[in-house]
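Deliverable D4.2, example record:
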Amino acid sequence: MLKKPSFLLALIIFLTAFSVSAVEVSVYADFLYQPSGSDWTEFDGFIENESYIDCLKIQTSSSKSYYLSYQTYNEGKTYFYPAVTSIENDYAGLAGRRIQKLKINVVDKSTGKNITEKIVVMYRVKTGGRWLAWASSAALDWRYFVQRKYGLTGVIDKADVANNYAGLDDGSFITGIEIRIFEENEIITSLGESGTTKFFDVPYINQANTYPTGCESVSAVMTLQYYGLDITVDEFIDSYLEKGSVDSFDPDECFGGDPRSSTGMGCYAPVIERAVNSINKCMKLKAETLCGKSLNDLCKEYVDNDIPVIVWATVGMETPRNGKKLSYNGKTIQWIAPEHCLVLVGYTEHHYIFNDPLNKKYTYYLRNNAEIAYYGLGAQAVVVTPTGEVNHSFDDWVIDIGATCTTAGIKSRRCNECDFSETQAIEPYHNYNTEYTVDKQPTHFEEGCKSRHCINCDEITDVMVIPKTIPNGEDLVNLSKELLMLSDNLLFDYAADGKIDLLDLIRLKRYIAGENVTIG
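Output generated by the structure prediction step:
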């Protein structure tokens, strides 16, 4: 048998002998198992996916007022082997014969009688690729209490204390074991802060008639609509929800069957997370799967901040039970019934408040019942929050009020994915003609100009210069005659012979063209 270091063991014995109750003491016990032909291997109370477990040893402190009496049912036998105790150097099982069932009782040292309260041992086994319900020799109310207090996920076997054991009667071999030991003083009712009430408004959708098994989709859409997303349950189911066969599916991978059918099954948190994160809408939302958080913690972290939480529990918060076995891709999956999905929107001292798709808006459930149902479904939830990214798909701008030359107008456009719209001012503007108007004709001596005129007022724009005209030979002759008639001086009589000849005309043409020519 493997032993802890002597100093640590002595410290553990001292602490456990004088410590106050109401703690988990699994860490103070030694757990060992033996595969066929191998040495003893120590584990911390949890072992999984071992193909061969034929012997089991549990050792508890001799300072305790109780001990564990445990026994196994092994391969090839038709009965349990005689029980051994956790305070003797012995073990349950038989080398070479795999364990099929496990039974553990808590015994009072002073009386030799089984203890059914305060000392609670919860244990379960994995067989056929799935974890079975939690077994225990404690009374049922104590089993549910430690489940709520310590957050044990999974279904609790409701068999009476005398006949309770972990394992199946079909000859399946155990491939995993989990053992938890708790010392408690009393059963404490789950309560919130005294006198505190908190809830907030989340849109409500009832699934009863249209989506008889679509609680997950309905809860998701209630949450999405809370953030203003324009989406219907039908759109969510048809465009985003992964769906598979009702007879063979993994609820972590897809919805089993059709949410609109009474024969549909359901799905778990990862499926809803992926569906929400695949939605390509204007407002980008992020979904995240949460595992193992208590309902009270979900209230503190999210509900207190007006963030709804999609949670998995049971219909009417019934006690969870093992439903049908699902076979998918070579593995066996245990369906928990009656599975349900709701939106956590508030709480009181005694209740959690839900938008229940099968009941009504603001449905109150006792904290104890809700916690048992929630842990039975694996303590899984999905929280959805905005990322801050917005990507609207707008239609074209529509002019609501036209602008004039002196007054502003207004234009608007609407997103074709949601109800969001935006408006913009249209600055005053002139409506200019596309064609130019000649404002001043050019001459041989002066430039002209042209511009575009506003059709509503006298404003002009895009003023352009029109170059001086270049005279041809006839124009030059006529122009020279004009100049001669207008002036007593023959300004362009280069030869000073009292007449205009060809050289004078050339000189005049250069002058008109803008060259630096001295005249007169």
